[in-house]
C-alpha cells in the first residue's frame, strides 16, 4: 500500500535525495506458527477482530532496535487529532515509528506500554491505519528542509499560521469573464503581500471561522478585519435605510 506514497511526486524525490528514509515492517512477519496469525477475537465478545499483542510487540521492538530514540505513535480514533501544528512538532523528531491499527484495534496492553502518543486524523473510521499513516507522513515530510525545494514554501501553506491560505491565480489573465485581481499583476511585492494576507483572513472568516479560536492575530490583521467590519456595517446601514424607505413609501401607512 505504501508504494502509492513512496513512488510518486515530492515524497519520492525526497527519498531519492535521502532527505528522508522509510522502513515498512509487516506485522505478519513477526507472527509465529504456520499461518502467521496476527489477530484474534476480542475477550468479552462482540464483532470484529483485535490485533494480537505478541507479533505487534515484536514488530515494535524490531523497529525500536533499528531506531532506539524513535517516538512511537499509534493511529487510533481515541488519539489526539492530527493537525498542522502537530505535523510541525513531529517534523522536529529524528525518527518516528507509526503503528497502523486495524480491525477493531490493537490489544490495549500494547497501546498502554509500547506507545508514546496516540493520534487520530479525524472523527471517522477507516479499515486500517495505513492510509492515515500516509497522510501523516506526507504532511510531516513536506516540512523537512529541502523536501519542497524552497525552504520557506511550507510557511505559506494553509494552517501554517493558523489560517487558510490566500486565493491563487495563474494564466490566462481572463477566464470566462473573470479576471485576475489587478494588484497581482502590479509587481508591487508589498501590496501583493498585503492583498494575500487580507485574502487569507477573509477566506478564513467565510469558510473556517473556528480557526480564529486558535490563532494569534497581529495588529495589522486586526486593522484589516476592522476595515471590513466598517465596510459591512456601512452596507447594513444603507440596506436598512432602503428597507425603511420602502416601508414608508406611497400607499404605506406611516
- The CATH topology assignment of the domain at 3-141 is Alpha/beta knot
With strands numbered from the N-terminus, the spatial order across the biggest sheet is 4-3-5
What is the CATH architecture annotation of the domain at 3-141? Answer: 3-Layer(aba) Sandwich
| Number of DSSP-assigned strands | 7
Low-confidence stretches: none
Given this structure, which CATH class of the domain at 3-141 is correct?
Answer: Alpha Beta
Largest sheet: 3 strands, parallel
What proportion of the residues form beta strands (DSSP E)?
5-15%
Cα gyration radius (Å): 26 Å
Structural class: alpha/beta
Mean pLDDT: 92
- Cα distance spanning the termini: 73 Å
- CATH H level, superfamily name of the domain at 3-141: SPOUT methyltransferase, trefoil knot domain
Structural commentary:
With 254 residues, this protein is of the alpha/beta class. The chain has a domain at 3-141: Alpha/beta knot (3-Layer(aba) Sandwich). It is 39% helix and 11% strand. The protein contains eight helices and seven strands; from the N terminus they run ααββαβαβαβαββαα. The protein has helices at 3-6, 9-16, 53-66, 84-91, 108-113, 130-141, 189-207, 219-247, and strands spanning 39-40, 50-51, 71-81, 96-100, 117-120, 174-175, 178-179. Strands 4-3-5 form a three-stranded parallel sheet, with helices on both faces. Strands 1-2 form a two-stranded antiparallel ribbon. Strand 3, helix 4 and strand 4 form a beta-alpha-beta unit. Helix 4 packs across helix 6. It is elongated and about 90 Å long.
Amino acid at each position: 500500500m505504501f508504494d502509492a506514497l513512496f513512488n510518486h511526486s515530492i515524497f519520492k524525490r525526497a527519498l531519492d535525495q535521502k532527505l528522508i528514509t522509510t522502513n515498512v515492517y509487516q506485522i505478519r512477519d513477526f507472527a509465529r506458527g504456520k499461518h502467521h496469525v496476527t489477530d484474534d477475537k476480542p475477550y468479552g465478545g462482540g464483532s470484529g477482530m483485535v490485533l494480537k499483542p505478541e507479533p505487534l510487540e515484536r514488530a515494535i521492538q524490531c523497529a525500536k532496535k533499528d531506531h532506539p530514540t524513535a517516538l512511537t505513535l499509534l493511529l487510533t480514533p481515541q488519539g489526539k487529532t492530527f493537525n498542522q501544528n502537530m505535523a510541525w512538532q513531529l517534523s522536529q523528531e529524528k525518527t518516528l515509528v507509526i503503528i497502523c491499527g486495524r480491525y477493531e484495534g490493537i490489544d490495549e496492553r500494547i497501546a498502554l506500554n509500547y506507545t508514546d502518543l496516540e493520534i487520530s486524523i479525524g472523527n471517522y473510521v477507516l479499515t486500517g491505519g495505513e492510509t492515515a499513516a500516509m497522510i501523516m507522513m506526507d504532511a510531516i515530510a513536506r516540512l523537512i528542509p529541502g523536501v519542497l525545494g524552497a525552504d520557506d514554501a511550507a510557511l505559506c501553506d494553509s494552517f501554517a499560521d493558523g489560517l487558510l491560505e490566500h486565493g491563487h491565480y495563474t494564466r490566462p489573465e481572463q477566464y470566462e469573464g473573470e479576471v485576475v485581481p489587478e494588484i497581482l499583476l502590479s509587481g508591487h511585492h508589498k501590496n501583493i503581500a498585503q492583498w494575500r494576507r487580507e485574502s487569507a483572513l477573509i477566506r478564513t472568516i467565510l469558510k473556517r471561522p473556528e480557526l480564529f479560536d486558535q490563532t494569534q492575530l497581529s495588529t495589522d490583521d486586526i486593522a484589516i478585519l476592522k476595515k471590513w467590519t466598517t465596510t459591512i456595517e456601512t452596507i447594513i446601514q444603507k440596506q436598512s435605510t432602503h428597507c425603511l424607505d420602502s416601508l414608508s413609501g406611497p400607499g404605506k401607512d406611516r
